[in-house]
Amino acid sequence: MARSVVGSLPLFSRPYNNNVLFTPLHLSFSARHVTSSAVTMPSFEVLGGARDRFLPVLPHLSRPYHAFPLLAANRHIETIFASFFRSVPDVRLRRECLRTQDGGAVALDWVSGDDRRLPPDSPLLILLPGLTGGSGDAYVRHMLVRARSKGCRVVVFNSRGCGDSPVTTPQFYSASFLGDMREVVSHVTGRYPNANVYAIGWSLGANILVRYLGQESHNCPLSGAVSLCNPFNLVVADEDFRKGFNIIYDKALSKALRKIFNKHVLLFEDIGGEYNIPLAANAKSVREFDDALTRVSFGFKSVDEYYSNSSSSDSIKHVRTPLLCIQAANDPIAPNRGIPREDIEENPNCLLIVTPKGGHLGWVAGDEAPLGAPWTDPLVMDFIQYLESEAVKTPETNSNPGSKETLYHLEV
């Protein structure tokens, strides 16, 4: 199962803009007069090797970050408020279950009617939710709605067991496993060969996405990507996750993991080996769950080895795809000290924006606060639209024409 310190916090989720004149002169002036590697802008930390390329085309950053009063007084209040009370846009989805080469399955949720509404070369966005998250999560739905309003085709990638995705083998997913990501990208790029394809990941989804970008490097078929609330260094994240109030998140996420596991526990009945099925079924922490199941499933000798080898901080230096990283300095689950600033600064394809507040998957700020879309959504779309306007050419996909995919369709 996925690296659990970095989740979408579905445990707190309910069941299922005003445009501002952009003044590039202001941004250019700021950049010219800064001697350090990072640009100091109103309310933000901004750095990255792609700063000069991307900063002038992000008008959302020309306005100071104003967190919503009272909610932003405490990072935990903002995190929990966003998960409990943020509105969930109503969108009709069409589910496609993609059978993977190892016999597993993931669920892809497309917006119903988009095949009739959009031309086949429309930009395509793959959305990767956080741990145990899926297409029903508020932050995913808001991004989906905004992207559609800009003419994008959108698909939500629900990992094994997440968002009611089927589980057909005794293996879930993890921060270390990129096989499903490769097959999903291959599938969607093969279906829409004339479209530029982008990906947006949150939390665990961001960690998986950045690791994918790094491993694919020069052969990556994506035209751009956005990482939000990425824990980056899972060892650091794990250390912080077991301290103070974060223990509440740990207990809640382990409960969500147990719920998914126990729903499919019969698949593991005769598995043997180092698996500790009773511990996984009753895990009181994410670390216990990962030690009992995840690290064994993916061949690691210890849970610490699993965390160390699954961190996306090690992948940044290899990323060749345009990448925007957005973090909150007070994120309780994705620690500020774990951000690989030096590697981002040295990579000519990366830009990092750090807001002073935001919590984890919160960002209750901007024109739509407190119940509407996160502050980050307009910024993400500015970035995607810029890349699309530059007509970034999508490389040929590495899909295997001989692979057998079993597809199922279901209206949800």
Automatic annotation (TrEMBL):
One GO MF term on file is: short-chain carboxylesterase activity
Q: In which family does this protein belong, per the annotation?
A: Belongs to the AB hydrolase superfamily. AB hydrolase 4 family.
Q: Does the keyword Nucleotide-binding apply?
A: no
Q: Which residues are catalytic? A: S203 (charge relay system), D331 (charge relay system), H360 (charge relay system)
Q: Name one GO biological process term.
A: lipid metabolic process
The protein's name: AB hydrolase-1 domain-containing protein
Q: Which PROSITE patterns match?
A: UPF0017
Origin species, per record, is Glycine max
According to its UniProt record, what is one Pfam family this protein matches? Abhydrolase_1
Superkingdom of the source species: Eukaryota
The residue ranges crossing the membrane are none
Domain AB hydrolase-1, by residue range, is 123-361
Query: Is DNA repair set as a keyword in this record?
Result: no
- Keywords attached to this entry: Hydrolase, Serine esterase
